[in-house]
Amino acid sequence: MKINKTNNILGIFFNREANKVGKNKGSGKKDRLEVSKQAKDFQIALDKFKALPDIREEKVERLKKEVQAGTYNIEGRRIAEKILEGIELDKRI
User: Fold this and answer.
1) Cβ-Cβ contacts under 8 Å for 73 (sequence gap 6 or more)
2) Distance between CA atoms of residues 6 and 20, nearest Å
3) Contacts (Cβ under 8 Å, ≥6 apart) of 63
4) Residuewise pLDDT in 10s, the chain (93 residues)
5) Assuming Cys at both sites, which of 18, 66, 88, 89 could form a disulfide with 72, CB separation 3.0 to 4.6 Å?
């Protein structure tokens, strides 16, 4: 058995493949990402946190001097307020 005119068959095959590629291009719409306000606020807070130094040297020095001089005053009410603020923050997170 002889098979002739394979060019026609190959031409049809390649033409169909080209049509498939053209159809896969989509509608031309692009994906879109919208970041929530909460995520933006979180990013701002994170950036500010990263900008803070690990140790606030000036505060450490001031407190050292106060302790050595005997003038360091512990404000119990202020400490309690900060603890409660931390608890409230933990609840939100």
Assistant:
1) 66
2) 21
3) 72
4) 566 665 566 666 667 666 665 555 556 788 889 999 999 999 999 999 999 888 889 999 999 999 999 999 888 999 999 999 988 877 776
5) 66
